[in-house]
Design a protein that fits this description.
With about 160 residues, the protein is an alpha+beta fold. The protein is about 45% helix and about 25% strand. It contains 4 helices and 5 strands; from the N terminus they run H-E-E-E-E-E-H-H-H. It comes from Streptomyces ureilyticus. This is DUF3592 domain-containing protein.
Length: about 160
Amino acid sequence: MLGVSVLAIGIFLGLLLPANSLVDDLGDRGVTTSAVVTGVDNKPEHVKVKFKVSGKSIQTDLQDFAGMRPEASVGENLMVVFDPRDPKRVLSQDWVDEPPFLSFPILGTALLALLCTAMAVAVILRRRWYLRTFGSPPLADAKTQPASESKERKGEAATHLTKP
């Protein structure tokens, strides 16, 4: 259970940190411009936009924010913020101003991580209580004990083998 919670925390951070970094970068040095949506698939897995930078026309996909992209239709004008160092890093201006941190992927992984961590802690605390209350469970049979321990328990002297 603890492994699942570590995995969920990793996925949560993997969704949140790159998206937050992109928003911070675009908020600090991004340039706002108008773009035209040139293509949208039905998932929407890709939202293609076209805009001009220094007289050059650039067509690229909008970056996702934690696996999400804004809803848009072909031909729609959209205000975007792009990184002047790398114009392929583009995000909707609305998402730069107010990032959608309360999205399903982020909240889902955060809740899964919290639930799995709470369950792991509960199991650990219950096990500790059980061991303090009832002691450690007895061994099932003598076959699971090492030979030296089983002879010592019967009162026989154990023979220890050593090299001369």
